[in-house]
Write a structure and sequence with these properties.
- It is a single chain.
- The chain is α+β, with helices and mostly antiparallel strands and 267 residues long.
- It has 2 domains: 68 residues, Multidrug-efflux Transporter Regulator, Chain: A, Domain 2; 171 residues, Multidrug-efflux Transporter 1 Regulator Bmrr, Chain A (Alpha-Beta Barrel).
- Helices cover 41% and strands 21% of the residues.
- Strands 4-9-11-10-6-7-5-8 form an 8-stranded antiparallel beta sheet, with helices on both faces. Strands 1-3-2 form a 3-stranded antiparallel beta sheet.
- Helix 1 packs across helix 2.
- The protein is elongated, with a radius of gyration of 25 Å.
- Keywords: DNA-binding, Repressor, Transcription, Transcription regulation.
- It comes from Companilactobacillus alimentarius DSM 20249.
- This is HTH merR-type domain-containing protein.
């Protein structure tokens, strides 16, 4: 049996919450001794986590009690309604996040000059991503780009959300760029087709970044500048290079006229 403090710790909640739930008839201890001390079974943890989860979603205790009293079939119907509300909230928050990300990018755009590396704070962003291609030739880029947007939806090209490539390029090695494996990526608030597609996360954090012209020569020159910048400042970066468009107008090689090359700085 678990003491109330032990059950609270196991469920990552408070002793006060468990007392309140008991008093409100939502979650009772398995037993109480003659001194009134509450004791719980381990099996009760799952019910408690369900209650805490519903409460975090904004359901009032009366609604949670109602769910507990219903047959399993009715509970499923109610949970589907809850899930639909969650999906709506996620869509709303995703739209807000897109606006915030655009404003952050716009702020960086104002400060940046071509081929002048800097450290910039970037938000967490979830991207749809293509399969991985073996090299960065014009032919490979065009083929993968067309395949990816055919899956996603052609209208996704025009929605203004962040897009670009994720390239496997450790050590900011410019000489390896032409043969580096890459994926096409697009901010995940867009998937009009509703097809199931893989996603990948760009973590929030400080990034070593440089703005470059969209050409092989421009990217290679930018990589060399960025590597020197990181070496001079003793910055350790991850192996993935985010190669992101600075506008939604795509011109050649599936990208805008200028691009950001970005590496997450390791702590």
């Amino acid at each position: 049996m678990l003491k109330i403090s032990e059950m609270a710790k196991l469920a990552d909640t408070t002793r006060r919450t468990l007392i309140f739930y008991d008093e409100q008839g939502v979650f009772h201890p398995k037993e109480r001794n003659e001194k009134g001390y509450r004791y719980y079974d381990y099996d009760q943890l799952y019910d408690l986590l369900f209650i805490l989860g519903m409460k975090n979603l904004g359901l009032p205790l009366e609604k949670i009690k109602e769910l507990q009293s219903k047959p399993n079939g009715k509970i499923i119907d109610e949970l589907i309604n809850v899930q639909e509300n969650i999906d709506k909230k996620i869509d709303e928050l995703s739209k807000i996040q897109t606006v915030v990300n655009k404003k952050i990018s716009a702020g960086s755009e104002l400060m940046a000059k071509l081929y002048e590396p800097m450290v910039a704070r970037r938000p967490r962003t979830i991207f749809w991503c293509s399969r991985k291609e073996a090299s960065c030739t014009d032919e490979d880029i065009a083929r993968l780009f067309g395949e990816f947007y055919k899956q996603l939806d052609k209208l996704a090209l025009m929605d203004g959300n962040q897009s670009g490539f994720l390239t496997d390029l450790p050590e900011i090695a410019s000489e390896k760029y032409p043969d580096a494996a890459f994926r096409v990526v697009k901010a995940s608030s867009t998937n009009i087709s509703r097809k199931v597609m893989p996603k990948i996360e760009k973590p929030s954090g400080d990034y070593a970044v440089v703005k470059v012209e969209n050409s092989t020569k421009g990217v290679l020159y930018g990589l060399d500048k960025l590597k020197k910048f990181c070496d001079d400042k003793h910055l350790l970066v991850t192996t993935d290079m985010w190669q992101l468009n600075d506008s939604s107008t795509l011109t050649n090689r599936g990208a805008s006229d200028n691009m950001w090359l970005e590496y997450l700085i390791e702590k």
